[in-house]
Amino acid sequence: MTGFRPKYVTFDCYGTLINFDMGGAARDLYAARLAPEAMAEFIRTFSAYRLDEILGAWKPYAEVVHDALERTCRRTGVTFRPEDAEMVYNRVPGWGPHADVPDGLARVAKEIPLVILSNAMDSQIPANVARLGAPFHAVYTAQQAQAYKPRMQAFEYMFDMLGCGPEDVMHVSSSFRYDLMTAHDLGIRNKVWVNRGHEPANPYYGYVEIADMSGLAAAVGL
After folding, report:
1. Among candidate residues 27, 41, 29, 23, the one with its CA nearest the CA of residue 82
2. Cα dist. 140→10, 54, 58 in Å?
3. Three-class SS state of 190
4. pLDDT along the chain (222 residues), means of 10
5. Phi-psi region of 133 (alpha: psi -120 to 50; beta: other; left: phi over 0)
6. 66-89 exposure pattern, b = at least 16 Cβ within 10 A, e = fewer
7. Distances (CA, A) of 116 to 29, 121, 140, 193
8. 3-class state of residue 198 by DSSP
9. Which of 17, 98, 116, 147 has its CA 20 to 30 A from that of 132?
């Protein structure tokens, strides 16, 4: 493990801490109309379009979901209805943590302040954070930063608010594309990849790998 004691441990929220179930929402909407293989492709395409939708100027996450779902439906020949996108968006605050998260966070929170940097709206995330089972020093959103990760502006907003720099934090995420690649480019040397099976390993970016949040304490020397 790193042996580095950061001023803050910073986290991606959805996918890393919260069980981010956009795929489940899509299945509930479209599984009756799509064969299993086509359904799996629909979910992969929906994920790709959500990433594409956040790379430009900031817009509310409801629009991100709407536009990504509409593009996915168009590409896959499924009829799009605006109310379907609204249903997907409204599910987000009801999602809870991965089973390993509350205990893993609680141990670290006793020693080091925890911070979330999330691609969320201010109105979405409080209900999710309340289920995490540990106190957070701060929760920053894309709405506050006016930028979604992986854009650097989101991370820079967090640094400005904390009054620290990349050298002061350890960033924890299950995603290279949303978090760890940008963290690397910004000079965050201390990174933890939570391998939840979302993406393949990419050792170039220099990180400690843990299987779940039970390994976080060792990564920060506790």
Report:
1. 29
2. 10, 16, 15
3. strand
4. 81 97 94 94 97 96 98 96 96 95 95 97 95 96 98 98 97 98 97 95 96 94 84
5. left
6. bbbbbbbbeebebeeeeebbeebb
7. 30, 13, 6, 15
8. coil
9. 147
